[in-house]
Amino acid sequence: MPYERIPIHTNPLDLRTRRPYPVRVSFSKPSPPVSSPIRELRFADCDQLSELVSSGEVQFIQLGSGPCKASMMRIDLDGFYLLLTEVSNRTACHTASRKGVRVIHIPLRWSGSLHWNGRTLERSGVIVWGDSCDYCRVGGDVRTVALIIDEAAIRERIEIWAGSSHGLWDSLDGHMLADTPASRHFAEVIAWVVGLAARGSGSLGVPAVRAQLSERLLLALVNAVEAQGESLVVGPPIARDRTRIVRQMTDHLLAYPDRVVQLSDLCQLTGYSARSIAHACQTVLETSPMRYLKQLRLNQARILLREGTRDRTTVSECAYFAGFSHLGRFSADYRRMFGESPSQTLDRSM
């Protein structure tokens, strides 16, 4: 039976003899690991969710009006991690391309309509992405699980377990898997692991347990893909042109928040006509280009206010840096968007 040495006193040295205190042999179980594979954010602003994602290129953008308290749980396993996200308001997730990363999403619950990269989803299921997860969630009360995995690792397991070609996986980018027993089993395994973490199970802190869970999850994913057969997916692929337009717009607006931008500037930037840009914003974001510009700048101002301090930061400075020239209209739009005044956000800052 394993044993560990436990000091009788908390101080390991006798200050008079400079020698360790006597020890006794105990047959108690080893101490649990200090670091936990589970991290959580509760009742946070939606932009704070990016803190639990490895890449710093992810930004959550609030689109709906009113308070938006979001929660996220991150579960680290071997070679990948899970993100359980809950958002109470309309939110877009802007993610820059991350080469070598595969993202699998499972929307679990939502109210109203749910649009994923310009496509309306009628049911829950497994969505397989390639090296980016640029998407938009429209509606409220959204609960989703994302599995973020190193693509090289999953390809290696495909060869070992299934012997299938990589072309099968490449063809899945941006598609939803067909509703098969194997895909439902994969979703059930995901829900089971999330349930373990939500209950605070100490077993997730044991490396051997995490390794077994990782293998079980990945094997279930491979089986779900292999079970697609001839009909690989349900539904059309992502409207890539529309999401590409929104991505280019967002990248530019985030890089130059204080610049005056007109619709003609967006046309020149993206290389698309004003009609195409308007259609992309309406399909992917359910808003107009200029309204999205204002929403994006309000989100940027909120980040500045939340990260500022009352003695060194002013509301006017944050407004001007985010591209607002009229402080009165900014305050009115800000209150309408977030359900509180800019000064209230600043007062709650660290």
Structure description:
It is built from eleven helices and 15 strands. It has an eight-stranded antiparallel sheet with strand order 3-5-6-13-8-11-14-15. Strands 4-7-12 form a three-stranded antiparallel sheet, covered by helices on one side. Helices cover 38% and strands 22% of the residues.
Furnish the topology, listing elements before pairings.
Elements: E1 4-7, E2 23-26, E3 38-44, E4 58-62, E5 70-76, E6 80-87, E7 91-95, E8 101-111, E9 115-116, E10 119-120, E11 127-128, E12 135-137, E13 140-150, H1 151-162, H2 166-170, E14 175-177, H3 181-198, H4 207-226, E15 233-234, H5 240-255, H6 263-270, H7 274-284, H8 289-307, H9 315-321, H10 327-338, H11 342-347
Antiparallel strand pairs: 1-2, 3-5, 4-7, 5-6, 6-13, 7-12, 8-11, 8-13, 9-10, 11-14, 14-15
Global shape: globular
Supply the CATH class of the largest domain: Mainly Beta
Largest sheet: 8 strands, antiparallel
CATH topology of the largest domain: Jelly Rolls
Structural class: alpha+beta
Taken as a percent bin, the fraction of beta residues is 15-25%
Identify the CATH homologous superfamily of the largest domain: Jelly Rolls
Binned, the helix content reads 25-40%
Strand order of the largest sheet: 3-5-6-13-8-11-14-15
Give the low-pLDDT segments: 1-34
According to DSSP, the number of beta strands is 15
- The total of helices stands at 11
End-to-end distance, in Å?
A: 50 Å
- Overall CATH architecture of the largest domain: Sandwich
Radius of gyration (CA) equals 24 Å
Q: What is the mean pLDDT? A: 77
